[in-house]
Amino acid sequence: MDKSRIIKKYPNRRLYDTEISRYITLADVRALVMGGVPFKVFDTANDTDITRAILLQIMLEEESGGEPLFSANMLAQIIRFYGGTLQGTFARYLEGALDVFARQQQELTQSWADTPLDTMTRMAQQNVELWGELQREFMRNAGFDLGRGRDRSKPSDDDTD
Q1: What mean pLDDT is predicted for residues 11-34?
Q2: What's this model's pTM, rounded to 2 decimal places?
Q3: Domain for residue 42, yes or no?
Q4: DSSP secondary structure letters along 73-141
Q5: Which residues contact 140 (CB under 8 A, 6 or more apart)?
Q6: 48 Cβ contact list (under 8 Å, min separation 6)
Q7: Residue pair 54/14 in contact by the 8 Å Cβ criterion
Q8: Are 10 and 44 in contact (CB under 8 A)?
Q9: Which of 2, 32, 11, 34 lies closest to 20 in space, CA to CA?
Q10: 108-119 pLDDT per residue, tens
Q11: Does any domain span residue 161?
Q12: CA dist 159 to 53, 146, 149, 154, 156, Å?
């Protein structure tokens, strides 16, 4: 069973949190995100899931104030992937990269005080393995044959004299 918190968006643009039975603001939704609380936002007019639109609205507000996370060049590069053959691959690559970054940030925070050198060594090894796998997946999805599992030192049936 899905344990996501349900938030309803009414035609008057107000957001209603069904768990706490009160109206909330985008700042409250941002606090849910920061707290790692799973939620979904539904438009009451047509019962469609508008969670992504709300998250994008929060990102737009964050980008408008203070130091932006995305440069204009980075945003342009992301836009170029829309509609292309690698759109899905890029989305999985970017999501995987962010997951790796978040896990390592958490691990670093938890173990830094105990053994900083061991922590950095372990994280570097994990980075090499994880990024290698992400790159291999990206290249496979882009159509490049990586010869996975084939020992290049031994001739195959495809090799000729």
Answers
A1: 95
A2: 0.68
A3: yes
A4: HHHHHHHHHTTSTTHHHHHHHHHHHHHHHHHHHHHHHHHTTT-HHHHHHHHHHHHHHHHHHHHHHHHHH
A5: 146, 148
A6: 42
A7: no
A8: yes
A9: 32
A10: 777 766 677 777
A11: no
A12: 53, 16, 16, 9, 5
Residue 64, CA distances (Å) to 51, 68, 70, 104, 139 in order: 20, 7, 11, 28, 35
Count of domains forming the chain: 2
Identify whether the C-beta of residue 6 lies closer than 8 Å to the C-beta of residue 24. no
**Residue ranges making up the domain that contains 95:** 72-141
Backbone angles phi, psi at 5, to 5 degrees: -70, 140
Greatest mean pLDDT range, 92-96, 106-110, 118-122 = 92-96
Closest by CA position to 33, among listed 42, 41, 44: 41
Both 92 and 115 in one domain: the answer is yes
Q: Quick one: 57 and 84 in the same domain?
A: no
| Token pair recorded at residue 2 | 């899905």
Three-state SS annotation for 12-62: CCCEEECCCCEEECHHHHHHHHHCCCCEEEEECCCCEECHHHHHHHHHHHH
